[in-house]
Amino acid sequence: MLTTTWVALVLGFWSSLYLLDAFLKSQKWSRRQYVHFLEYTGLSVSICQLRCYATCLNRTFLRVGQNKPKYLKIWFTAGVFFGMFAMLISICILTLMVFNTLRRNTADQQQVLTPVMPGVNLPTSQVSYYLLTLLVCGILHELGHAIAAVREQVRVNGFGLFLLIVYPGAYVDLSSEHLQIISPLRQLRVYCAGVWHNFIIVVIALLILLSLPWSLVPFYTMGNAVVITQVTQNSAVSGPRGLAVGDSVTSISGCRVTSLDDWSSCIGVSIHEDPLGHCLTKDLIKEFDTSAKDYNHSKLMDCCNMTSNTHLCFMYHTKSSPHNKFACLPARMTTDRPMCKFQSDCYLPKVETACVYPALDNETKLLRIVHGNKPPLLFLGHPLDLHYSVHVSNYVPSFKIVPLNLPYIVETFCKYLISLSGALVILNVVPCYALDGQYICYALIELSLQSFIPDRDIRGLIYTVFIFYGTLLLAANVVIALWTLFS
Prior knowledge:
The protein is of the alpha+beta class. The protein folds into three domains: 2-38; 58-214 and 410-486, no CATH class; 222-404, no CATH class. The protein is 51% helix and 17% strand. It has helices at 2-26, 28-41, 58-66, 69-104, 127-151, 176-181, 184-215, 260-272, 282-288, 331-335, 383-389, 406-428, 436-449, 456-486, and strands spanning 43-46, 49-54, 156-164, 167-174, 220-221, 226-231, 248-252, 255-256, 277-281, 311-316, 325-330, 339-340, 353-358, 365-371, 377-381, 390-393, 396-397. Strands 6, 7, 8, 14, 15 and 16 form a six-stranded antiparallel β-sheet that branches. Strands 11-10-13-9-12 form a five-stranded antiparallel β-sheet. β14 and β15 (377-381) form a beta hairpin. The longest helix is centred in the N-terminal third of the chain and has 36 residues, at 69-104.
């Protein structure tokens, strides 16, 4: 249902935009002003595509490309070596993926290329990260081409942005005449600059991600608790007396929580291990027991008859009475007592004590969650309900004014930059039609084979074979990835 809604909204938007564009161009009262507006802003509308083209950045490209040319030459030459290495690695990986798939006669679940589609395999809460990452990676990719082109005396005609269906991107308009007359090595500096910048994005994002715990130290604390960043509405832990966004959780039923790993581990322990009890004296049990007088203590566990929200049925035995008994006790008073695992943990001289355990079925657990300065929350249910109802973070704000979700935003954005920018490197260096790899392959063949194979037609044939193979290879991987996604 969600996918259908997304498709309907996208189709409705593009249909309305295209019809509006056609209507304004066809009317006498709006045609001149509208066309003038499009020319002034550089906007153009076509089927499922919106473009914005401008020349205002040309001077900026010129200044940057002519500043410190020696350093830029070293920088983009390093990009050439990276581009050649990345092309070799990309071809090997994609070939291996196709080979493994054909050998097994089935698509591998761990694909190198995975199509990302909003509403299909991309949660709606992550769409903004995905689209922003695509835009940033596309812009920096094209900026690399533009600056390298200026460095190699290739004219930059303009720079543009586009929106294709739901996918944003950027492009740079270079003079093809200037590109054709410069040497193959200089061409490679221009062609490889995009994927080189995508790789630098991956490196920078990885460094930010790894340094995140230290860079946020003045504003966030780690290693003492986890902070709640989201609570599902109408869940078992929501409400005025439940967990709230911003609460710091330090323990779950005596299990210390200092990190996300601890949070998951403590919930796992509560699922698989028997619940801990609490130490009470026999006199306190008799004083607070509210079970019926005629209640059969030896057979039934529902000693509270499910009539109280504050009391719970507990099971216990004492040294003088080794058989299990049940008592309906105040849950909060009982769970505030010292915890115990065995009867011997509750030993007190000259006082008869018992380790009382919640009398529950195998699936239901009683968890005591300590969160901040508030009274501990008593959670009664399956621990997985707690896991899915609450989102937590390692970064506990040191001050109230510090944004709670900032570490999550930075961390998520860096992960998207690493995955998507890395994917753009793998895609763009493949010797495939309409990709950077096509031009890199041509310039590389001209640079390496021109002195050995002077016949231009033979070099062209070699180039055609590489491009044909790269196109089929990439197409095969895309088909395999789509088959895996929808099968």
